[in-house]
Write a structure and sequence with these properties.
Layout (H helix, E strand, L loop, with lengths): L18 H14 L17 E6 L5 H9 L3 E7 L2 H14 L4 E5 L2 H6 L6 E7 L17 H10 E11 L2 H12 L4 E3 L5 H4 L9 H5 L7 E7 L1
Parallel strand pairs: 1-2, 1-4, 2-3, 4-5
Antiparallel strand pairs: 5-7, 6-7
Bound molecules: S-adenosylmethionine.
The site of S-adenosylmethionine has 23 residues, from strand 2, helix 4 and helix 8.
Amino acid sequence: MDDRPLRTYGRVKGRPLKARQAALVQTRLPALCPPAGPFDPRALMPDATEVWLEIGFGGGEHLAAQAERRPDVLMLGVEPFLNGVASLVRHVDERGLANVRLCQGDARELVARLPDASIERVFVLFPDPWPKARHFKRRLLQPGFIAALARVTRGGGRLRFATDWRDYACWTLERMLASPGWTWTAERADDWRRPPQDHVSTRYETKALGDTPPIFLEFDRR
Ligand SMILES: C[S@@+](CC[C@H](N)C(=O)[O-])C[C@H]1O[C@@H](n2cnc3c(N)ncnc32)[C@H](O)[C@@H]1O
């Protein structure tokens, strides 16, 4: 029996990589990948003040911008889509970012390899909305994964979720509120209606494909 978790992403391969991109991936990616098996992200950058994890970084624009802003933070990214991985490798190379590590694959597998309380911040920005009811089970923040993220996030750490699909925001909020690990930080409507002060717009966000302006939900790790 196949006990792998249900796929939460549409594709892992897009257009073939251009020769330069493929060469960059081949030469730079191995040193950017965390080791196989369980690992402590602090060991990847011992002088890092914090470790932040971005799940489904797409083209990596947000991750690269945050890494550039905060060179003291280790930015860890995970994304199954090869073209997205290649795009982030290019950002890392062009901007000379020394504080980025990335993994091509499923965030649920990466998170299972992390020690307890090893991450300060988690970003889940504009994940695939899976709008049809029969596909809700493919949405990323299922109760089991919400609990896994609570395990790896340090007390007082924070998770940011963003979407421009109203129903997906409600669906996720319901599940996060039901989890004992997280507290929703919003006190007024502007706290979820306005982008957080340190938000960097993502490529998917600018496409505005959803049915509402972006909604930002932030949760503190209890
Ligand atoms: C709609 S795109 C948004 C990309 C990016 N965050 C942005 O806002 O531009 C969702 C991304 O999540 C990735 N994704 C889906 N399931 C994932 C999983 N289980 N682990 C890691 N990434 C995943 C997809 O490959 C895709 O790149």
